[in-house]
Specification:
Helices cover about 35% and strands about 15% of the residues. The protein has about 280 residues and is α/β, with parallel strands linked by helices. It has one domain: NAD(P)-binding Rossmann-like Domain (Rossmann fold, 3-Layer(aba) Sandwich), CATH 3.40.50.720. The longest helix is centred in the C-terminal third of the chain and has 20 residues. It is globular and about 50 Å long. It binds zinc ion.
Length: about 280
């Protein structure tokens, strides 16, 4: 995870004269195109719909939304279970790994009996058993620059639940190239971070953080992972419904050891090699 000081250093490079290219951050479904909810859905999501900012129309939007979750590990466990809980209609899961014993201190969507088995399949099984309404597509694949287009094009929103910064920067590049909104999250030990990236409108990862190629395995504690993943999911819901104040051009850092949250404002970096020239 990057420190908030690293983010601040990145932010200082911002030039106010830079021209911003605006694109639609998300496909907001017109109400007339929304399918009616079934009687089962009306009961299941009753407590969602009692929330003024959601209501029945909002629930229809959630039920029609297509969200791609990249990584079915620690962050993915909470993001996937939370997305299924709120009633997201279609969830894609990208992960190439099999379940290892050392994953189970935090990756609770997978059961002990699935050790050695493919993670996307055990994650799909959990969702299918919990919420048969949710359509789950699995991609047992290591995402790279040659294979992402056929996958990402079918989704409205990308959730970063990868565990290495090399993968996170790749996902950031994919989001910028496809114009898809990306919810970024990362966790190490007791600490975590979240930002919502609207390509060409808000700061991307490359704008604000130094790239690191090396993947160093560090400790990570399940409650910190769940906090960050829950915030990522909350961001996803707000982006889909276009409500509330989101972490767009904002970097939220979480210090679970001392129980502190900090948010700093961001801006696009005009010298960003990725998002400033397109
Ligand atoms: Zn950028």
């Amino acid at each position: 995870m990057k420190s908030i000081e690293q983010v601040k250093r990145g932010k200082q490079k911002t030039n106010k004269n830079h021209k911003t290219v605006h694109r639609l951050p998300f496909t907001v479904y017109p109400s007339s195109h929304l399918s009616p909810l079934t009687s089962h859905q009306l009961q299941r999501y009753n407590r969602n719909m009692l929330i003024e900012q959601i209501g029945e129309e909002g629930q229809k939007k959630l039920s029609q939304a297509k969200v791609l979750v990249c990584g079915a590990g620690g962050l993915g466990s909470t993001v996937l279970t939370s997305l299924a809980s709120v009633g997201i209609g279609t969830i894609g899961i990208v992960d190439n790994d099999v379940l290892e014993l050392s994953n189970l201190n935090r990756q609770y969507i997978h059961k002990f009996e699935n050790l050695g088995k493919i993670k996307v399949e055990s994650a799909k099984k959990w969702i299918n058993e919990f919420n048969p309404d949710t359509c789950v597509n699995t991609y047992q694949i290591r995402l790279d620059e040659n294979n992402y287009q056929d996958i990402v094009k079918d989704y409205d929103l990308i959730m970063d639940c990868f565990d290495s910064f090399k993968s996170k920067f790749l996902l950031n590049k994919i989001a910028v190239e496809t114009g898809k909104t990306l919810i970024h999250g990362g966790v190490t030990e007791f600490f975590g971070q979240v930002t919502t990236i609207i390509p060409h409108k808000t700061a991307c990862l490359n704008c604000i953080l130094p790239q690191e190629d090396a993947y160093v395995i560090k400790g990570v504690l399940s409650p910190a992972v769940s906090v960050i993943a829950s915030i990522e999911t909350m961001e996803a819901v707000k982006v889909i419904l276009n409500i509330g104040e989101r972490l767009e051009n904002k970097f939220l850092s979480y210090d679970g050891l001392n129980m502190k949250f900090k948010t700093i404002n961001l801006a696009k970096n005009p010298d960003c090699t990725l998002c400033s020239h397109s």
